Amino acid sequence: MAAPPAASALEPAARSFLRGKQSSSAYRLPAEAPVLPTVDGWVISGHPEVCRLAGDRRLVIDPRAGDPPVPLTQSERLESVLARMLNFRDGADHARLRRLATVAFSARRANAVAETVAAVVGDLADAALARGEFDAVADVGVPLPVRTTCALLDIPRADRQQVADWSTAMSAQLFTFKQPPDAVEAVERQLAELTGYIDDLARHRRRGDLVADLHAALDHDEFVAFVVLLFMNGLETVTAGIARAIGALAWQPGLADRIRRDPGSAGDVFAELMRLHSPVRLGARRAAEPIDAIPRGAPVFLAWSLANRDPRVFTDPDTFRPGRPGRSLAFGAGPHHCLGAALAGQQGAAVLRAFATRARLTCRTDEAGTPRLPGAAIDGFSALRVVAEPLMVGVTR
C-alpha cells in the first residue's frame, strides 16, 4: 500500500483537501495516488483502499489515544460524557456499544418510524413554505434529525424543542476551545439539565422501551452518554445532506419534475446526491500498529468524498446518475459506519418528495455563492435561503 513515485506532485492538493479546500486536482488522487503520505499524515482516497482501512482495527478513532492526546472539548464535564460515546470508542468497548446501537437503529425500528419521518418532514415543509422564503439549514436541516430521534425515543412533543436546543449546544462544543469561562459554565449548566432530563426519562419507562432497555444494559454514565449521542446523531451529517437536497431541487433543472413523476426515485436521487456531495468529507484515524507502509502512530485520513468519485468504481464519477452501481461511502464504512445511515436515507427521500410535490424552489444564491461551513470535516452550507412558489393542485410541470 505504498504511494507511487510520481504521486508527490499531488501532495499540495491532498494537503489543501485536509484544510477544507477541494481543488480539481484533488479528484485525481483516487486513481493516481490512492494512498499518499503527506507532512500532515496519510491521505487515503482510493475507494477500495478506504474500504479496507476503514475496517482495519489497527486504525483507532479516539483522538485522546494519540501522542499527544487531543481533547474532545474545553469542558471537563462534557469531555467525560463525550469520551464515553460510541463514536469515540475503539476495540471491545466500541463493539459492545455498537451492538446496542444496532438494536436502536435496526431496520425494524427505522421502518416503524417511517410514517413519523414523513409526518415530521411534512410539518417542516408546510411551515417553511408558508413563509414563502426559508432557510433550508435552520428551518429544515437542523430540526429534522432531532425531531426524528425524539419520535424514535418517544419524547413528548412539548419537550422536543428543548431537547433540540440542548443537543445543538452539546454538538457545537466538539473540538471547540478558547472559550471564556462563562461560556463553558453555561454549557455545563445545559449539560446538567439534559442529564437530569435523561434520568427522569429512565425513571418513567418500562421494559421493552428503548430508553429503558439502554438503562438496563449500561452503567449510568454510559447510559447518559448513549442517549446524548442519539439526540446529537445526524446534527451535522443529516443537516448537511438535507440542505443539499433542497438546494438540488432549485439548482438542478428537471429534478423536481422527475420526483413528481416518480416519487419512488427519491431514495436513489438522495443517495446519488450524497455520493457527489458527501456530508462527511474525511474521517481522522491513527495507526495503533504499523499497517503496510503506514508507521505506528501516524495520522491517517480516510477521504470519503474523494473515494466516492473514484473512477475505478464509478463510471463518469462527476456525473449525476441516480441508481448507479457502486458502494457509496457518504456515511462512512467499517465499524464506525454511521449508525443512522438508513434513517438518514429515509429522511432525505422524504424531504425531496415533500418539497418537490408542494412547491417550485429557487435559491437566493447559486451553489458557488452559498456560504459554507468552516472546517475540513463537514461539507455543508451554513445557510441556504430558498424562495418557494406553491404548486397548483394537479400541476406536474
UniProtKB/TrEMBL annotation:
Superkingdom assignment: Bacteria
InterPro entries linked: Cyt_P450 (IPR001128), Cyt_P450_B (IPR002397), Cyt_P450_CS (IPR017972), Cyt_P450_sf (IPR036396)
PROSITE patterns named among the record's database cross-references: CYTOCHROME_P450 (PS00086)
Family matches, as Pfam families: p450 (PF00067)
Keyword field contains Zinc-finger: no
Sorted UniProt keywords: Heme, Iron, Metal-binding, Monooxygenase, Oxidoreductase
Family classification: Belongs to the cytochrome P450 family.
Name assigned to this protein: Cytochrome P450
Native source organism of the sequence: Phytohabitans maris
